[in-house]
Amino acid sequence: MTRRVEVALGERSYTIAIGEGLTEALIAFVRRAGYSPRGMLVTDTDVGPLYAERIAECIASAGVAAEIVMIPAGESSKTLDEANRLFTRAIELSLDRQSPIFALGGGVVGDLTGFVAATYMRGVPFVQLPTSLLAQVDSSVGGKVAVNHPLGKNLIGAFYQPDAVFADLDLLRTLPQREIATGLGEIIKYGIICDSEFFAWLEQNRTDVLSLAPAAAAHVIARSCEIKADVVRRDEREGGLRRILNFGHTIAHAIEKETDYIRYRHGEAVAIGMAGAADISEQMGLLRREDRLRIERLIEAMGLPLRANGVTVDGMYADLFHDKKTVGGHIHWVLAEGIGRVSVRSDVPEEIVRRALAGLCR
């Protein structure tokens, strides 16, 4: 059964379809979308050999010849140089303003492709086909697209909503366990920021979640998307409420930068960052110790790290000020006030932050 989550944004609204075997739904969508007959399917060297030809054939049967363009797998591809290569190929293919660009892959592919779609000819149609658990519950939803800069992650980007998202559970079958765990980092986050019952459900259904049993996978993806869609609906451009989606991310981005975006998957860095944010929350008197320990236990139970190798307190602290959430030299920290409730604070003393960062270093 296909579950659908609506992202209600007026004329920019779209549907997230979640289920097994969504190719027919994709074909039907493309047929009625009114796209130009040429498009582009962006994927990477990991996902492309597994799925690209089959997906391109489906899109072709719906009336759009989408050329497969492959990028090297990994965070190092999320650059202006790689974006320029995609711009060049789009121009060579004579893509016009109604030519769709499809993103088939994880978060790197989705972020890069979305950035290209947002800026090529000032915006062309964009469809997300996320193939990782992390992308299905996070980066494919909400319209934040970007590339990295050597001084920081996602500093060059835009808000640009896709026309649709197809979260096909069949595409998760080839994921290694580490990739499942990294998606669970973001999933745990949703329970902490908005839904204590969902957090408790994750605690109670750990085995089915880790094995991506179909019913459990559909539930965690749908619930995560529902939470994110509701937040995005109320604050599309991160003016206030949407900041809560960044719980754990301020520290995570510093960890990723300090380790050259190689040592840790994004969800792993988020897990460590959530442990740090929970520590800061407790030090600030906002979070009970027993709730911090519950957060840490669930992170560990899902196969995620609580500490980081290859980082220093001074290095991470300096990196915090290159984060997008730092405004006027003040870091906007998303802190837990309990499981299911967070707030945004900009009054966290340096010594508390440094103490928390020290606790994250192995």
TrEMBL record:
Fetch the HAMAP family from UniProt. Answer: DHQ_synthase
Matches recorded under PANTHER family: 3-DEHYDROQUINATE SYNTHASE, 3-DEHYDROQUINATE SYNTHASE, CHLOROPLASTIC
Q: Know the name of this protein?
A: 3-dehydroquinate synthase
Instruction: Please give the organism.
Output: Selenomonas noxia F0398
**Pathway given in the UniProt record:** Metabolic intermediate biosynthesis; chorismate biosynthesis; chorismate from D-erythrose 4-phosphate and phosphoenolpyruvate: step 2/7
Which amino acids does the record list as binding NAD(+)? G107, V108, V109, G110, D111, T131, S132, K144, K153
Q: Where mainly located?
A: cytoplasm
> What does the record give as cofactor?
Co(2+); Zn(2+); NAD(+)
At which positions is Zn(2+) bound?
E186, H249, H266
Keyword hit for Nucleotide-binding: yes
Name the InterPro entries on file.
Answer: Dehydroquinate_synthase, DHQ_synth_AroB, DHQ_synth_fam, DHQS/DOIS_N, DHQS_C
Q: Where is the 3-dehydroquinate synthase C-terminal domain?
A: 183-326
